[in-house]
Give the backbone structure.
Amino acid sequence: MFIRTALVYPAVLTVLCLGAGVLVDRLSGSFVPAALLPAVGLAGLIAVSQLCTYASGIAPATPWVLLAAALAGFALSRARLVALVRRAREWWWLAALPVLAYALALAPVLLAGRPSFSSYLALADSAVHMLGADYLVRHGQDYAHLDLRNSSGLTISDYYGSSYPSGADTVLGASARLLRVPVIWTFQPFNAFVLAIASGPAWLLARRARLSAAIAALAALAATMSALVYAYELIGSIKELTALAMILTLGALTVVHRRWLFAAPNHALAAAIVAAGGISALGVGFSAWAGVTAGLLLLIALGAVRAGRARVMPLLLLCASGALATFVAALPTFLDLGGSLKVATTIASTSNPGNLHTPLRWDQVLGVWLHPSYKELPSGVARTVTDVLVAVTIAASALGIFGMLRARAYALLAWLLAMVALLAVVSLYATTWVDAKGLMITSPVVVLIAWSGVAALGTRAGSRVGGRASLLLGGCAGALGLALAGGALASDASQYHAANLAPTARYEELASLDRQFARQGPVLFTDFDEYALDVLRDLDVGGPDFTYPPPALAAVAGGHGARVELDRAPPSALAAYPLIITRRDPAAAPPPAAYAEVREGAYYVVWKRTKGAPVASVHLARTVAGAGNFCARVTALAAAARTRGERLVAATAPAVVSVAVRDLGRRVRWGRTPYGLVMSRPASLPVRFSVPSSGVWDVYLAGEFSPPIDLSVDGRALATIEGQLGGNSLVPDFTAPLPLTLGAGRHVLLVSRRRGSLAPGDGGAAVLDRIYLAPAGAPARTLVTLDPRASAAQLCSRSYAWVESLPPA
């Protein structure tokens, strides 16, 4: 699976984008520079996938339509392709650039050597895009059949049923389906690929700034991998990354306007398709960037008309054809313009900062940020170096503007400054969330301005100045380029190190459950992990602690991300769910008697409602009633059951040994938070515990364990756990149980965090919340029938998790 998703999948995307790119180029008059073909092709694929999924009847055929479009492009553009192959030696920098960019963008996953994604625990929006990518390619824009009583239907309806932009999602879903690989494992490769093809237009812009081919490649890499852009790629901001590729492509088309702006009307098709791709991916808000670019092109055209180099009528025809092509290519967005505008307005005006506790700083647009998180300020030496690099970038930008003026690169300079001016205008009115996106999208533009300063110094060094002065200027240009490239790559390296990779094994287990129980839902999912919406897409998931909880069960959890307590659910509300999937948690209350365990995996237990099982009249839980008066409540319940002629059923759970750890952290200088001990430094924590009997025990650790954590018991190595992350950093969840043979009595468990390494995720989350031991092989729940006529002493002779009163059999 890793080879297919990380290596084969981007190769398939390359073929699709290149084929679609040469098709658009052919229809546009064969003028599109080679550096822009993949990005133009992606825009064409977005347009085709949007049209296919808008007509829900042909949505399942979308993958094959995209393939047909690519093959048509290859068939119609053989001469162009042959010419490109013949000039391969001239373009090898351009060919190597996206490969290197892809490798850097996907570095956490590639070096982990397993299918995963790096946006885990960072921003759950990626879960929505995964769900949407799968849904839209299977059902298209058809939401009438959705079950709005559960999280899955509510999520799709609230997002995509309300004209949420889906341009990138439809290409993601169609390309993954074409290769028959899960969207969850292609999500990060897709984002890395989009960022990689954005390096093409960035390279062309850098070349127009008079940088050599090799230095332009380095500049394009630093621009598309600037600290803020890299951060948004790691958290899976698929809409913004796709929009960024389209914006840079519009900029590149602007600087090569002489090739198409004064030609036949069909020459506007490439720019129109790119603009439509951005609108479909980001929403009508993309019109701000497209409108500014169009305004600049209009000024250029008017200047040409005044100078007598162009005529009005051909320009009007070209504008009309461009506008029509944009409308058709983004037809689904424009047909529901009211809904699209509402979504854009809601996003632009929301006070919800998302995952940002404070607004981002303006200097983050400059491309460097020497800290593992773009949401926090660097400190110490890192802060000093960051400030120095910021100052260097500002100076380089000023020099670059001067250099572009001297070189009369007016179109390039005008577009670059227009993008910065747009950011300034947007920031006056934008909220924290939108302002951060604006900074990210503009960051490559600012970095390219700074690299034009390198070009200015290099050009000056090559002019007629003294030998020593020329060497000095050349050395300064080299030093400046190294500072800009080094700052960006060092910033990316610190973020790469702290990336939290999704736990592959746990999602593979969920996928197996989806295959085994497909269409037997809806399923009540008690683990907080909204990625299950996609992985369990055939089970109509209801998650009471999700952003969109089932309305009838909203009170079962204490809110978004809080723990689910089935005991708080009215028995009648649970009757709507044939299946319940719970996390393996030895201390959690088991489901009601109506459910029987049908599968137990390493992470999850599946419970199925027994056919014809009656709904309990009363479900009395120890956690809800309270241990102090639980016996009295059971006695009263028995008296009521006798009166109604009902029967009593109780559940017992396995004996659990709870090991306290929260007060032990000070011994090894691990910080304490409400969520557990933060294992912030290499250390070994001895934890003492005792078990009542000899035998095999399962050891459960609750927490977040991204870096390797070594476990040993009584000096014997037990296991090394890593990459074991739950769905919510605020509610640490359990690892898969570790079997261990123990004798009765006292033991010592040693929990050790290793010294740091350069491995992906080694700087990620490391939190230890609690430890449980439970007898291995013990059933998760044992049912006991109670006699309602028994005395209070008999009824309370054992410890029960809950007691139910059931109608007569």
